[in-house]
Amino acid sequence: TRVLVLNGPNLGRLGRRQPEIYGTTTHDELADLCVAWGAERGLEVEVRQTNHEGELLDWLNAAADERTPVVLNAAAWTHYSYALFDACGQLEAPLVEVHISEPKQRPEEFRHYSVVTPFAVEVVAGHGIEGYRMALDVLVSALGQ
Ligand code: DQA
């Protein structure tokens, strides 16, 4: 099964961005880990990152058309993008929401709401990079494999 792992804005700087919050693993390393974790589970994982909201919307629209399961860390867009809400609402295959940190435990009030959660089979947050492995496990069960 083909699976998309989609990462939103500022996640391209993983490893350098606020390592005290997001850790020291780079996005390239995360991508390699996700591909390996997927392979162990019989999933063909493709990892993408963008700082451009429209690009993420295009990927989600294609995932809707192709019924592709998605692991999504929409980063800051999670908290306010109604276009993202609408795009997630069109997905047909399971969607798992992932965050490296636990946004609900962070001091900024704006992080406490997610437009993705209503459409996610599960939210995995606060487990660092391992959260992506957990999200793939959730997808495996959701797909009934
Ligand atoms: C994040 C949490 C968001 O609040 C933040 O805007 C991010 C990353 C996380 O993975 O912990 O960019 O989604």
From TrEMBL:
**Keyword Amino-acid biosynthesis (UniProt):** yes
Q: Which Pfam families would you find in this protein's record?
A: DHquinase_II (PF01220)
- Lineage, top-rank taxon, reads Bacteria
Enzyme Commission no: 4.2.1.10
- Pathways per UniProt: Metabolic intermediate biosynthesis; chorismate biosynthesis; chorismate from D-erythrose 4-phosphate and phosphoenolpyruvate: step 3/7
Q: Which reaction does it catalyse?
A: 3-dehydroquinate = 3-dehydroshikimate + H2O
Going by the record, the broad EC class of this enzyme is: lyase
What Gene3D superfamilies is this protein classified in? Dehydroquinase, class II (3.40.50.9100)
Residues involved in substrate binding: 73, 79, 86, 100-101, 111
Q: Which PROSITE patterns match?
A: DEHYDROQUINASE_II
Site, as annotated: Transition state stabilizer: 17
Keyword Lyase applies? yes
Tell me the Gene Ontology biological-process terms attached to this UniProt entry: amino acid biosynthetic process; aromatic amino acid family biosynthetic process; chorismate biosynthetic process; quinate catabolic process
* Listed GO MF terms: 3-dehydroquinate dehydratase activity
Q: Where is the active site?
A: 22, 99
- Which keywords does this Swiss-Prot/TrEMBL entry list? Amino-acid biosynthesis, Aromatic amino acid biosynthesis, Lyase
Q: Which family does it belong to?
A: Belongs to the type-II 3-dehydroquinase family.
Q: Which proteins does it associate with, and in what oligomeric form?
A: Homododecamer.
What does this gene product do?
A: Catalyzes a trans-dehydration via an enolate intermediate.
- This one is known as 3-dehydroquinate dehydratase
Organism lineage string: Bacteria, Bacillati, Actinomycetota, Actinomycetes, Propionibacteriales
